[in-house]
Every structure is written in structure tokens, then in C-alpha cells.
Amino acid sequence: MPEIDGFTLAELMRGSHRSRDVPIIFLTASPDDPVRAFKGYETGAVDFLHKPVAPQVILRKVNVFIELYQQRQLLKARNEALERSLKLNETMAAVLTHDLRTPLSAILLCADKLALELPEDNAGAQQTLKHLEASTLRMA
């Protein structure tokens, strides 16, 4: 590339919102130089190929990146669906909790009133009342 090198282009692509996630495969005729390869990976390359490269190799690598992209999109969609389900679940739990509190409060108030009115010598009724209060508190 006459006006810009691949490293600069990769940095520009990573800095742009539109091209940030585009996988970059460096293709070079330069000799295998680890310093250049590391620089390529640091600027955003996902692969580094040296010429001559068979077209089938490039095609297969591109196909792998397409599959990875499709899998990432699928995972993203599934994650969003799970998040929506979780939010719906939380909303339903909040609604149910709210809707149950009103009748449970009424039951507890009635149990308290009965406790005040029941004679203390009625052990069976006192025991039933304790079960009623315990069950209501557990539900609450």
C-alpha cells in the first residue's frame, strides 16, 4: 500500500466503531520477522500470512472467521433473549410478591385478632392459630 502501511490501517480500523470488530489478516511478502508479527497482532491482526499463500488457505481462513462471527451473533442474540427472560421473571416475581402481601397481611391481622379473643384454655384452637400464623409468615 503506497500511502499507508498495514499497521497504521489496522490501528485506524480498531479506532473506528464501524470496523472495530472486523478480523484483520495481514498478508505480507516480507520475511518471517517475529517483531513485525508481534506488531501486527498488537495493532489488531488475528492472523499473519506470508506470501506465497495458496488461495484455498485464505478462503478457509476467511470461512472460519465468518463462522466465528455468525456464532458470536447467535450467542449475542441468545444472551439478549435470556436477559429479557430474566427481566420478565424478575417482574413476575415482584408482581406476585406484591399481590400476595395484601391477602397475607389480612390473614395475619385476623390471626392476631383471633389470638386476642380466644380463651387461653382452648389449647386446640391456640395450636391451630399458631400454625396459621407460622404458615402465613413463612409465605410472606
Helical residue percent?
Answer: over 70%
Sheet with the most strands: spatial strand order: 1-2
State the name of the first-level CATH class of the largest domain.
Answer: Alpha Beta
CATH homology group of the largest domain: Response regulator
Assign the CATH architecture of the largest domain: 3-Layer(aba) Sandwich
Q: Please state roughly what percent of the residues sit in beta strands, choosing from under 5%, 5-15%, 15-25%, 25-35%, 35-45% or over 45%.
A: 5-15%
* Order of helical and strand elements: HEHEHH
What shape does the CA trace take?
rod-shaped
* Average predicted local confidence, pLDDT: 88
- Write down the CATH topology of the largest domain: Rossmann fold
Total separate domains: 2
Give the N-to-C terminal Cα separation.
71 Å
In terms of structural class, how would the helical and strand content be classed? mainly alpha
Spans where pLDDT lies below 50 across 5 or more residues: none
Number of strands: 2
Instruction: Please state the CA-atom Rg, rounded to the nearest Å.
Output: 34 Å
Q: Largest sheet, described in full?
A: 2 strands, parallel
Number of helices: 4
